[in-house]
Amino acid sequence: MVCSWISAYKNDLLPSPNNVTLRFENMFSLRWEWEMPANFQKCSWSFISDVKTNRKPPPGMVKSSNLFRQVDIHRVDLNNQITFNVQAECNGTSSKWSENSVLIIPGNNTCVKNFACFWFDETYMNCTWEPTVDSVRATEYVLHYWRKNGSSTSEGKINRSVKFDQLWYSGTPCQHYIYKDGIPLGCHFKTVSEKNLFLMVIRDKSKTIRPFITSVKPEEVVKLSPPVIINKTRTPNHSIYVEWSTSFQPSCLHINSEIEITSSKGKVETVEVPKCTFTRELNALPELTYTVRVRVRQSSTISSSLFWSEWSEAHDIKGTEDNTTFYFLLILIPISVSIVTIVILVFLKRLQVIVFPPIPDPGKVFKKSFGDPSDLQQWIKYGKVNVSSKPVKEEICSVILVETPLFSSQAE
């Protein structure tokens, strides 16, 4: 009988796993289960399973003799389709793949987008989101969450028989919403531990839009406060010295820094600073002005977070070109003001003549119309003046004709 089984395996008649199903082992673990035909139970089975999801990196392939596989919810994208494949092996022979695809929350569009959580300075955590186009009218958002502390679930334990669509209302509701324009678009968590794992579901009260479900590990979303630049100056060799500090208290060995320097010519350079270093001397040209700013993040030795803090306030370090410009402006501005003043005065003078023309002198007008008044005064003072014309005496001149006698020689 055993020989017949082996012959069947070699002829690729090994049956594929069947009845592949998915359920929640708890709120933080998915469990796929399958079966094999009863008449093949005497074989030493092994199974290769593969989980395909949008989350990177995916869980990948696993080989096991169990008829189930569990996957942490943090390793899958719960808002999109999850595909599970399983294959049986026996004595070096493999069956065909069995596939199971499932959408945890059915529907087309979720009610939120751009969901993000940040654990600020390892003190408090804010999770925020934006409404989608389809959910503009859904102004009443509700967030429920489940918290797992290490290997134990401290909140939101569930009954294993509960269906998916019944789970999303069994969690702890958000206690401190973050509002924007009167709409709850975030949740504030006052107490958070690096060992926590959160499962969150966001929906609208009307239940008309597909909920959004996600998981969050605080240790992966640490974001530090921006550093403060406490000193920036030029050294005698014209390089730039920058010093900064951060409010994050753990050892400096756990802090990575990055400094950005921008010259007045627009060249931008970013420099990574070694751990435990909060100063940097940068090469610079003496004539150029530079702008510097700094940001920090936790080292990978203590955190898997890849998030940088916001940039610090930008600071300028002046160059010698600024002094030249200053003296040039110091000379140019007074000259420009003087020229403008002269132009304005000339313009105002001409404007005054146009707007307020001079009043004519009545004496000049009378003189032009009736002559010079001084002549009248002379006439009154010295009596009558004979203004008639004296007769002109005509002289009569007589004309005498003188004839010259012709000489005899001429007459001939």
From TrEMBL:
Signal peptide: none annotated. Pfam families: Il13Ra_Ig, IL6Ra-bind. Residues 226-323 form the Fibronectin type-III domain. The keyword Transmembrane helix applies. InterPro entries: FN3_dom (IPR003961), FN3_sf (IPR036116), Ig-like_fold (IPR013783), Il13Ra_Ig (IPR040566), TypeI_recpt_CBD (IPR015321). The chain crosses the membrane at residues 326-348. Keywords: Glycoprotein, Membrane, Receptor, Signal, Transmembrane, Transmembrane helix. It comes from the Eukaryota. It is found in: Membrane. The keyword Transmembrane helix applies. GO terms for cellular component: membrane. It is a single-pass type I membrane protein. Its main location: membrane. This is Interleukin 13 receptor subunit alpha 1. It comes from Xenopus tropicalis.
